[in-house]
Each structure stands twice: as structure tokens, then as C-alpha cells.
Amino acid sequence: MELRQLRYFAVLAEELNFTRAAARLHISQPPLSLQIAQLERELGVKLFDRNNRRVALTEAGEAFLNDVRVTLGRLKDATVRAQAVDQGLAGRIEIGLSGSHFMGPAPALIARYRRTHPQVSVLLNEMSPAAQIEALRGHRIDLSISRTRVDDEELQSQPLWPDPVAVALPAGHRLAGRKRLALADLAREPFVVLRQDTSAYARWLAEACAREGFVPDVAQSVAEVPAQLALVAAGLGVALAPESACRQMEGRIAVCALPAALSQAMVYAVTRRQGRRRALDSFLQAAGQAARVSGTR
């Protein structure tokens, strides 16, 4: 049984006229008659009563038509879904991100994308930066939202938006009234730091301090930025953290800028070079547009 035969049968059942049905199908009448006869032989039932004056569905033909319409309808839906997935308008995206990104532009970006792409499921996986890269290489996620660029034979990075490094201070700290600080101003301060074993971003910050001639006096070491800033708010030390996350805590902490040469940092979309989901391209395009609009404000 061929799909073509089912389509021919459905059209003939609607028209009940071989000439009109053939015209709708853009074929001549003999091939239509031949295909219907072959379908009846394969089914072992008569689908149409026909003579020189009329064509009518048999009882078996009426029952068969109901199921054929369901089959063709499902095939049409499947075709539409496949085309939508191919165009990046449907499907699924698994995103890995750390806790600090929930305090920045990422949630609003994902919400906007869901509104414009309702057929794409966006699944968020809160993970450490190191675990994100491992999951990306293992095809368990499709995208890592990362503060560290990764470019090698397997992975590539695309800038999303800038997120400068800022200094987070307890609200009553002696330096809290300053708008801008140098790293050297913090050399004798106790630090709340991110664990370097799970974050390349944490290692980069430690290296920046080393270039300024000091090693941070670590009072507390945590895995995520929200925990880091909560401890700063409690007065347990100062921290170097993403400005977007620090701004969410203003009122509980003081936020100071760093010199541009030290503060520049970017958020990246890290993806596989091969085997990417088509919906991911539309997501990255939406992220790029959102970043450009934000940059013009």
C-alpha cells in the first residue's frame, strides 16, 4: 500500500467522480482508476460501487475513509512539525548555566524567546561552569552560558553581552562610599571567592589579583555567585563578582567599579561546532538582537 494510493482514494471519495478527482490530483483518469483498483486488490475489499452513471462508497469504503483521513491528517501535522524543526521554529534546547546568570539578563532573554518561539522547549540546567563544559562535550546540553570563552576543535564561543567585574563590599565597609576602586585597594581585605576547581572565571580573577601583586586573603570559598554575595552582605568579606549580579543585591551590599582594564568581562554562548539543534541558531540570533538593543539604550 502506497501513500499515493491513500491520497487518491481520499480525493475520489470526496468527489465521487473520476474525472473531477483526476483533475484535482493533476493526473489523467486511467492512472487514477489503476491505483484505486490496485488498492482494492491489496485490501481485499471493494471500496467503491461504480457504473457508467455514478460512483459511490461502499460500507467498507466509508469505514476505510475515516481511518485514511486520520492518517493523512497526522502525516500533515508531522510534515508541519518537521518543517518547523528544520527552520528552528520548534524543538528543544537544553541550556546549562550557573546561578549568577539567573541574576542577569538571561531570564528575560529566555522569556522573550519563549514568547516568539512557543513551539521550542527551553530547559534550564543549573550547573557549575566546569560541569557545563563536560555536559556540552557529552551532548547532554546544547548550550553553555559561560563567563569564559572556550574555542577548540569541538567547541566554539559567541559573545552575548558584556558583564563587567565589580567589587562587592559589605554595606558599612570603609570603602563603600567610593565609586571606583583599584584592585590594590583590596590587598589587605578578607575575600569571599569562587572555588577555582569548578570555574575558569574564578581562576581568571585570581590571576588578575596576582598581576596586581597580591594573593587574596580567602575568608570563605563558595561554588556560586549568589552565595558569594550573601556572605558579603553578612559582612564576611569583599568579593569580585559580575556587576549584573551585584546590582541585584544593592541595598544589602555596596558596589564599586574597577578600572576598565580590569573590569572588562563578557558572557558567551558556548556550543558544539557540529551536531547542533536547529532551534539553537534561532535562540542565538534572538540573544544577539537582545544584546544589540540593550547596548543602544
Defining key terms:
single chain; 297 residues; alpha/beta; Arc Repressor Mutant, subunit A; D-Maltodextrin-Binding Protein, domain 2; 3 domains; 5-stranded mixed sheet; 3-stranded antiparallel sheet; 11 helices; rod-shaped
CATH superfamily of the largest domain, please?
Answer: Periplasmic binding protein-like II
Envelope shape? rod-shaped
Largest sheet: 5 strands, mixed
Unreliable spans are: none
* The CATH C-level class name of the largest domain: Alpha Beta
Strand order of the largest sheet: 4-3-5-12-6
Please state the CA-atom Rg, rounded to the nearest Å: 31 Å
How many helices does DSSP assign?
11
What would you call the structural class? alpha/beta
Quick rundown:
This protein has 297 residues and is of the alpha/beta class. It has helices spanning 3-15, 18-25, 29-43, 59-86, 106-116, 129-137, 200-211, 225-233, 243-248, 260-263, 278-296, and strands at residues 48-50, 55-57, 91-97, 120-126, 143-146, 155-162, 165-170, 190-194, 217-222, 239-242, 253-257, 266-272.
Structure description:
The protein has helices at residues 3-15, 18-25, 29-43, 59-86, 106-116, 129-137, 200-211, 225-233, 243-248, 260-263, 278-296, and strands at 48-50, 55-57, 91-97, 120-126, 143-146, 155-162, 165-170, 190-194, 217-222, 239-242, 253-257, 266-272. It is built from 11 helices and 12 strands. The protein is an alpha/beta fold and 297 residues long. It has 3 domains: 3-86, Arc Repressor Mutant, subunit A (Orthogonal Bundle), CATH 1.10.10; 91-162 and 266-296, D-Maltodextrin-Binding Protein, domain 2, CATH 3.40.190; 165-263, D-Maltodextrin-Binding Protein, domain 2, CATH 3.40.190.10. The chain is rod-shaped. The protein has a 5-stranded mixed sheet, sandwiched between helices. The chain has a 3-stranded antiparallel sheet with strand order 10-7-11. Strands 1-2 form a two-stranded antiparallel sheet.
